[in-house]
Amino acid sequence: MRNASQNSGAARRAPRRRRGHERVAALLEAAAACFVEKGYDGATMTGIAARAGAAIGSLYQFFPTKEALALALAAAYADALERQLQRLAARSAGWTPEHLAAQLVRLLGAFRRRHPAFAALAEAAATQPALRTLAVRRRLREGLRELLRGHAPGLAEAELQAAAVVVLQLMKAAVALGGEPGLSGRRAALAGLERALALYLADLSRPA
Amino acid sequence: MRNASQNSGAARRAPRRRRGHERVAALLEAAAACFVEKGYDGATMTGIAARAGAAIGSLYQFFPTKEALALALAAAYADALERQLQRLAARSAGWTPEHLAAQLVRLLGAFRRRHPAFAALAEAAATQPALRTLAVRRRLREGLRELLRGHAPGLAEAELQAAAVVVLQLMKAAVALGGEPGLSGRRAALAGLERALALYLADLSRPA
DNA sequence: TTAAAATGTGAGGATATCCTCACTTTTTCT
DNA sequence: AGAAAAAGTGAGGATATCCTCACATTTTAA
Lengths: 208, 208
Description:
GO molecular function, one term (chains A, B): DNA-binding transcription factor activity
Number of strands of chain A: 0
Protein name (chains A, B): TetR family transcriptional regulator
Number of helices of chain A: 9
Pfam families (chains A, B): TetR_C_15, TetR_N
Strand content of chain A: under 5%
Number of domains of chain A: 2
Oligomer: homodimer
CATH topology of the largest domain in chain A: Tetracycline Repressor, domain 2
Organism (chains A, B): Fulvimonas soli
Keywords (chains A, B): DNA-binding, Transcription, Transcription regulation
């Protein structure tokens, strides 16, 4: 989990030695764990530092603000997700709508399972105006748009954009279902959402 | 994180005179406004009391906790929504999937516009474990299940339940789109989501 | 009228969080 | 070795929130 992107919530002091980079990585990991357990608001800088085995001052050396910490994490997630989407797009030529839908749902679900803090941050972004800069959504939309371009050749640019928004919302719904605890019939519901996505994709590529 | 009594959401002292009821109504309204402007976490009890023109002590007289306040608001919203869903179900016999989808999206969208705090609370419930008791989702699911029963007679009970979950998620997605600020092509995206819902509903009622 | 019940008040205690800063320790480089 | 740069430390200041409590005011009913 490297700090791939530059300074949008710039580190007060960027790490320049190896130890610094390791510390930053440990801090980000601890932050992710705390965000998952307590949510963005509930997580405390003191708690994050403690979990990383660092002093509070160390944390503030690299991240001047809780918000900067969250933004750094989100940027890393956005990078990873965009790459995965591109890889999927490259392989998706000729797939049926059903298969494409299944792969898309699977991709986001697996990512969420691997990085639970991603969901926590996405939820927090809805409430916290400070996190509105996340731009994860925009990057995902663009990735999806490029993916869809190959599957619905007849669509105008505006329609393609709208379709990307729709597909993203459907994927998000599937991910939300995955996070709902103790919902009876979750598997069936997930299959239903996947079906809805497949139907929509098929409708998209059908010659009007 | 101070919490005096673990009285789950009950008013410390229920209003018994007319003035008490008016005050409670004013406090709830002020709370809704604050939740919209600052979010559940950002809203403060002091701010809510001030906005209602009441002293902080008055607020705590009726709502022992911020959580109790939110739960009371949410209960009112759940009641209203359930009623509206039932009214829609009563009129929906014979509707095409397209029309049903349009009406469902319209219903939730209008509710969200009329009661913006509903969305704020729904978002907060995802993060705040204290609000997990909301149960709004469960009641909506049940309402939808009954509505769908008339439109897909062949379905088993478990399938009906799953379908209700799917439809609720699709409606939520549509509502989320409505709240996204400054998204270009929002109308087109909304139409796309409605189309996905219609396709899913049609697929549901098609004889397998 | 008058006492009891309901409602209203706001200063302040308890607690919690964010973040600073003066300082120490470790690493790098000449 | 020695100096400079980077990384590390944690007590505490500033601030903010939740909620209590002892008491004042208004309404109801006998």
